[in-house]
């Protein structure tokens, strides 16, 4: 019997059974427009999600699922569930009342993952701190740090909670363009060490911090067109980059760097301000120290 190969990644996702744009908590959301096409858009979202799910499976990923819940349309955006590193999950706390109902369901999902051995420990934020999971805390494997966004949806004070929980460097940057309300809409580290980012999302000090940590040949500044397509909200697995869409110029630039761009339309989720990264939560990331210990033990 042929041995089963190890997965390339493990993700947490949630089927969009109850997804809709039912309220407005970011500039992309227009409930009235959605309501005019609710049936068609609901069906479209299910088809788009399924295509993303299948593409990730074909890339070798394993996927665990959160049970959809009526009345929680944004539960589908599992990137916001927690920050996960080295088998530790730091559960999210949401800014807006419309999403706070998701918190116990995400915690229940992580308790199940812990029982199955996919998560070793579950932690909670201090009571007065808001942090919307990996949506605002993006791991950079090359630099062994988190890029954390604050302002629209998470608190600057969350930086200390993340640093204390995971023992890693955390670069906290203020997000100043309401369209790019989470860090995962504004910045994505790639597996080759490059970082794609939306310049207008950050303050001058934030841009200086990015440029200080990333060599010029590894910076990929997105144009306004690619930024509006949420090209930064991408999932990178090895040299495959999964996103909703991008311009031909960005595709060419990425392919020249050795990446395979896999476009999968997620237009219905763009209406809610989300795309490929938002719809997934990586569960198996490790910091350099843990990776080194694992390699030594092997």
| Helix residue percentage | 25-40%
Order of helix and strand elements from N to C terminus: EHHEEEHHEEEHEEEHEHEEHEHEH
Distance between the termini: 24 Å
Number of H- or I-type helical stretches = 10
Tally of DSSP β-strands: 15
pLDDT < 50 stretches: none
Largest sheet data: 3 strands, mixed
Give an overview in words.
The chain has a three-stranded mixed β-sheet, with helices on both faces. A three-stranded mixed β-sheet has the order 3-4-5, sandwiched between helices. The chain has a three-stranded mixed β-sheet with strand order 6-7-8, with helices on both faces. By secondary structure, the chain is an alpha/beta fold. Strand 3 (82-85) and strand 4 form a beta hairpin. The mean pLDDT is 95. The two termini are 24 Å apart. The protein contains ten helices and 15 strands. The chain has helices at residues 31-36, 38-58, 97-100, 103-115, 158-166, 204-213, 224-228, 248-256, 267-270, 288-297, and strands spanning 9-14, 61-66, 82-85, 88-91, 121-123, 137-140, 145-150, 169-174, 187-189, 195-197, 219-221, 235-237, 240-243, 260-263, 281-282.
Please provide a brief summary of the model.
The chain is of the alpha/beta class. It has helices at 31-36, 38-58, 97-100, 103-115, 158-166, 204-213, 224-228, 248-256, 267-270, 288-297, and strands at residues 9-14, 61-66, 82-85, 88-91, 121-123, 137-140, 145-150, 169-174, 187-189, 195-197, 219-221, 235-237, 240-243, 260-263, 281-282.
